[in-house]
Design a protein that fits this description.
- It comes from Oryza glumipatula.
- Belongs to the RBR family. Ariadne subfamily.
- This is RBR-type E3 ubiquitin transferase.
- Pathway: Protein modification; protein ubiquitination.
- Its cofactor is Zn(2+).
- This protein is α+β, with helices and mostly antiparallel strands and 529 residues long.
- The chain has a domain of 195 residues.
- Helix content is 49%, strand content 9%.
- The protein is built from 14 helices and 15 strands.
- The strands form 6 sheets. The chain has a 4-stranded mixed β-sheet with strand order 6-7-1-15. Strands 9-8-14 form a 3-stranded mixed β-sheet, with no helix packed on it.
- It is elongated and about 105 Å long.
- The relative contact order is 0.13.
Length: 529
């Protein structure tokens, strides 16, 4: 059962949709490991892979390891194209340090055209020696000996003093790619010449130039971003090429969305998450009050304020209702001519806001209280059941707990996504896709409802004491391991529903990070070779 991503898809969406029995499939999986099957299950079948077993997809770069990380990419391009370092840097900056773009352009356009489009001019192999011993600088119009002038790859030659002042002025403006002084020449100056001339007259500027080149690896690189920790930990996170939409965890402990550098928020796209957070900061207090104290009368649709201790109230029209009435994960709009539109919009928001907060609160409680309890259970398992036939380390229990925390966050954020996707008004869908939206919404809410039920079941099972006879613990292990797999499978299907079925219906293109059962990718420290 070992796998790089461990998605545990338990059914085909097409088959489930065609038969309409996706719910029964989930229930069957939950019960498949009954008492008769325990003897047939191997220990590996019950093992959930630990997060540290997953190969690192991203790296944490410190100030000390930054030069080595940059040099690694530079050396790769230098060896690939047989060019100098400053040419390799120019090409990488032009393509924002995307190696896959360089490979693509090299394959489609060839080496010479690709370099030319990046304003890289290679020196000619056969250059005729100067026939005279002096050269006239076309900037200051003075004559200099050949030892007092410098020539760039483009062939333009100026005196060292003019070059030095040109370099100094460019660096003071923060320009890390210094171009030739010749009019309309776009060639990039040789880094070695820049350093050599600046170090003679402006040594501080020479150091500033090296710093600017290092900063280009961070500021011009789509695959590297600073960790948003505060106070800053001093690390930058590098992800794989083309992994813009992903969630990563810095070694300092801060997890964030690599695309927007905000807190992790999948399966909610960055744009929708920003809208949700902004709305929550402005309306949360009002929503909490309205949610706790008012409700629309189902008969006359007038708002009713609760001013007593009992939740059972009577409207002036004579209708009796309960303020704290229960409803499912789906939002159902009120129909009728008397419905207050603004009131209905507020009710719709409170529906999603309430469920978002419920799961967010459950996550905090499970993290604070259930986490230490699970650790204690692991210790008891290891101390009481270690023997020649019971070689358990408790890792399956820790992994199931991690699946619970991850899926709890997925549930919470799925309500933020649903609020805007299904009628929030600020996210526009194609008018021709109304029928497809209804089908996709039904699929999404089915998955959400399944996930909600199994997450609560998993939470309940993890909170129970596992001590008992070995046979009882084996059965409990089978049940918890299966529940964790089911929760991961439904989360994966919920993500696929959003990415493949719902987001393509929007006018504004959006993407989400891929589902990761173990949580955000954990960045490993970049080690200098």
């Amino acid at each position: 059962m070992a796998s790089d991503r461990c998605y545990y898809y338990y059914e085909d969406d097409d088959d489930a949709d065609a038969d309409g029995d996706g719910e029964e499939e989930v229930e069957w999986l939950a019960m498949e490991a009954d008492e008769d099957d325990v003897g047939l299950l191997e220990e590996d079948d019950l093992h959930l892979r630990l997060p540290d077993d997953r190969p690192a997809d991203c790296w944490a770069i410190t100030q000390e390891s930054l030069p080595a990380a940059q040099q690694q990419d530079l050396s790769m391009v230098m060896n690939l194209l047989n060019i100098k370092q400053h040419h390799a840097r120019t090409l990488l900056i032009h393509h924002r340090w995307k190696m896959h773009c360089i490979y693509d352009h090299l394959d489609r356009k060839g080496r010479d055209r690709m370099l030319s489009e990046a304003c890289i001019i290679l020196p000619k192999n056969s250059m005729s020696a100067a026939s005279s011993t002096s050269v006239t600088c076309n900037v200051c119009f003075e004559d200099f000996s050949m030892t007092d002038v410098s020539t760039m790859d483009c062939g333009h030659c100026f005196c060292n003093d003019c070059w030095t002042e040109h370099f100094f002025a460019s660096i003071n403006t923060g320009n890390r790619q210094i171009r030739c002084m010749e009019v309309k020449c776009k060639a990039i100056c040789d880094e070695d010449i820049v350093r050599r001339l600046l170090s003679l007259k402006y040594p501080a500027a020479s150091k500033r130039f090296d710093l600017l080149l290092l900063e280009s690896y961070l500021e011009d690189n789509d695959s590297v971003k600073w960790c948003p920790s505060a106070p800053h930990c001093g690390r930058a996170i590098q992800v794989g090429t083309g992994e813009k939409y992903c969630e990563v965890a810095c070694p300092c402990g801060v997890s964030f969305c690599f695309n927007c550098a905000g807190q992790v928020h999948s399966p909610c796209p960055c744009a929708i998450w920003e809208k949700w957070k902004a709305k929550g900061h402005g309306d949360s207090d009002s929503v909490k009050w309205i949610l706790a104290n008012t409700k629309s009368c189902p008969k006359c649709s007038k708002p009713i304020e609760k001013n007593g201790g009992c939740n059972l109230v009577h409207c002036k029209c004579g209708q009796c209702l309960c303020i704290s009435g229960h409803s499912c994960n789906r939002y159902k709009e009120e129909n009728g001519d008397k419905v207050d539109t603004s009131r209905q919009q507020m009710q719709r928001y409170t529906h999603y806001w309430d469920r978002y907060n419920i799961h967010a609160g459950s996550y905090k409680v499970e993290q604070k209280d259930l986490g230490p309890a699970v650790e204690e259970q692991v210790k008891k398992l290891e101390s009481n059941l270690t023997g020649p036939k019971m070689n358990w380390d408790g890792s399956w229990l820790a992994m199931a707990y991690q699946s619970l925390l991850t899926s709890r966050q997925v549930l919470s954020r799925s309500y933020a996504f649903a609020y805007y996707m299904f009628g929030g008004g600020e996210v526009k869908t194609h008018p021709s896709e109304c029928s497809n939206l209804a089908v996709a919404q039904n699929l999404f809410e089915d998955r959400q409802e399944q996930l909600e039920r199994h997450v609560e079941h998993l939470s309940k099972e993890l909170a129970t004491d596992l001590l008992g006879m070995p046979e009882e613990i084996v059965l409990k292990k089978v049940e918890i391991a299966n529940l964790a797999k089911i929760v991961q499978a439904i989360c994966g299907q919920l993500y696929r529903c959003i990415q493949d079925e719902l987001l393509p219906l929007l006018f504004q293109p959006m993407n989400i990070a891929a589902y990761q059962p173990d949580g955000p990718d954990k960045a490993k420290e970049f080690i200098r070779a």
